[in-house]
Each structure stands twice: as C-alpha cells, then as structure tokens.
C-alpha cells in the first residue's frame, strides 16, 4: 500500500512536468528582420522570381562578376530582369537608371528597380524591388541578399526608383 501511494504521487508529478513542458509554445518573433524577409519572399507573386532569388542568395559580390563565382549589383539586376521578365537592361547601374521610368517608392511593383548613390554623385548601386519595402541586391559586403529599403542607410542614398516595363 505504501509503495502504491508513492507510485501514484510519482506518476502524478512526472505527468504534470511532462505536460507542462510540452505545452510551451515556441514562436518566432514576428518583428525580426528574418521574419519580415521571409514574409516578403512568401508574398512574391512570381514563383520564378522566388526561385531565382533563393538560387542566388549568398553568392559573393565581385565587381564585374556575372556568374555564381561572384556577381556585382548591376550584373545581378541585369540577369534577374532578363531571366524573369525578358527585359534586356544595360550592364552598368548608371545606364540602367537612364532607361527606367521614374516611380515614387510607394508605387513600386515587384521587379521594379531602385537606385542608390553611395559615393554622393552618380548612381553606383542598384537593387530589384520585391514588396512591403524589401528589395534584393548584390551587397558589396554580404553578397546577394534581401534587404529592407526603409533602413536609413538606404533611404539616405536612394536617388531613383522606377520601372522599365
């Protein structure tokens, strides 16, 4: 009888511990950069664009590069626009900006281009707009990556945005 009483309490305590640990919900904070990037990617209308970006994500930056051993920003935009939209852009970001019809940032659509001037004068960087303020580009330090256009680092140097279509 004494053994049964202890067994009952032991089983009860173990059950409470097991179920209380198992009932915890582990969630990803929805306000993290990673979750926002994931939402932007999941919201893409073009599945071909999604595949293209995931295939190129992480490819290192190489000035003048045009393949998976290294690519620069204008080369990435050039390949993406050609493969996904059938549009042939000039190869250099400054020239790409010249063929784009200006649109305000709040009117951009998936596949539109965003141009930056980090050096302060001419266009020297390009990315491709996705949605919800996110764009994909070949970063000189991080390679091909999806980034938040609303970051001050980009807002302060954004010089043009628009469409070639």
From TrEMBL:
SUPFAM superfamilies: Cysteine proteinases
Entries under InterPro entries matching the protein: Murein_DD/LD_carboxypeptidase, NLP_P60_dom, Papain-like_cys_pep_sf
Entry keyword set: Hydrolase, Protease, Signal, Thiol protease
Annotated ranges, domain NlpC/P60: 43-165
Source species, domain of life: Bacteria
GO biological-process terms attached to the record: proteolysis
Molecular function in Gene Ontology: cysteine-type peptidase activity
Name of one Pfam family that matches: NLPC_P60
Family in the record: Belongs to the peptidase C40 family.
PANTHER family in UniProt: ENDOPEPTIDASE NLPC-RELATED (PTHR47360:SF1), MUREIN DD-ENDOPEPTIDASE MEPS/MUREIN LD-CARBOXYPEPTIDASE (PTHR47360)
Name the UniProt record assigns to this protein: Hydrolase
Origin species: Pedobacter yonginense
């Amino acid at each position: 009888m004494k053994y049964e009483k202890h067994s009952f309490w032991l089983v009860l305590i173990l059950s409470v511990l097991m179920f209380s640990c198992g009932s915890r919900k582990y969630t990803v904070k929805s306000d993290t950069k990673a979750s926002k990037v994931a939402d932007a990617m999941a919201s893409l209308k073009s599945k071909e664009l999604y595949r293209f970006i995931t295939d190129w994500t992480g490819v290192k930056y190489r000035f003048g590069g045009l393949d998976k051993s290294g690519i620069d920003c204008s080369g990435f935009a050039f390949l993406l626009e050609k493969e996904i939209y059938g549009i042939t852009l000039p190869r250099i970001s400054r020239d790409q900006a010249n063929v784009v019809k200006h649109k305000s940032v709040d009117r951009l659509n998936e596949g539109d281009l965003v141009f930056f001037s980090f050096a302060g004068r001419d266009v020297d960087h390009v990315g491709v707009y996705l949605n919800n303020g996110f764009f994909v580009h070949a970063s000189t330090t991080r390679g091909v990556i999806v980034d938040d256009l609303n970051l001050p680092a980009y807002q302060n140097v954004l010089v043009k945005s628009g469409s070639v279509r």
